[in-house]
Write a structure and sequence with these properties.
Length: 367
Amino acid sequence: MSQSKDAPVRPSSERQQAETTVELATALDALREELRQLRLRKGQPSLRTIAQKTGWSHATVGRALNCETVPRLDVIEAITQRLDGDVDRMRQLWMRCMDVGPRVSEAPDEPEEAAPQAPRDNAFPALAAGVALFLFVVIAAALSFFAPRSPDADKAVTNIALAAFGAAASLAWFASFSRRGDKRSLWLALAMAGWTLWRVRALLVDEIGPLPVAPSIVDYLSLLLPLFMLPGLAAALPRRFDQKNVLGWAFVAAIAVSALAALAVGSFTEPSTNEIFVRALRVSTDIAMFAIAFLAGRSERSWESHFISFALAALVLADVLLTVSFLMPQPNLLAFQAALCYLAFALLMVVAASSVLAPGTKTPPPR
């Protein structure tokens, strides 16, 4: 009796194709879900935000996140790095897709760019940095001209310039906050406003002189900078850092180090223990701000974070020079050198804010 031919036997190749298609769909689902969770943990940034940080176009980023077909590995790695994800884990999921992907006949994917495009706002921050460098040279030359002839003129020109650029930086960060609505810009704007008030006070009171026996709140205006800037810098830290713990330890460490310095140095120097404590606290909080900015900059890698780190490095040097100048016989040139570092700090903070406000830049903050 012959075998029935009513139901044709499915070719083996088609069966394997179907099984492979299902296997690929499962692998792509796993990759898509991992990317979705990673994006969700970062606050669901927009495609354009991710594209701006990676250098790829938003269309390429969108195709990679959708995983309709196997995306490019370099795109997946760039997205994962910018979202603080596990690159090795994502690479394994991608390799699983590639294990079965080439065996599936499918329509060719849309063409993608051969390499990441350069960020559109590269030119503007570079131009702003050039203008800032020019202003620094001009003002430094002016200070060098006045310093040997008229210390009072030197002090007035220095503090007017510092207050002006500090106010400009504060206004620029407020403009950044109005544009992005992020906490970091607001904290940095308040920090620069506090620093500007300190420089305005320096127009009236000699900052090299000791604090009064009974200091007032005005005498501690310099501490408004770290009070506001530390939370702003911590807001840009990667997710693996707990912001509250970082801030808590930063303040505790700064106060502890300053207290130890006051006890150690105050025992054999003329300035009061309170005076040394305040100046040591200024330096220790500067170092804490630079450390947090450096950690944030390693994951963010933007013009903004780089200029902030450079600015805080200049601030650390300025406060160290000013503190040493205070402990040395007067007059000395360290105060003038500190003023130049303060000027670099203020100008770099203006440039950092300008990188956010650059034409065509639509990048929201990291969180």
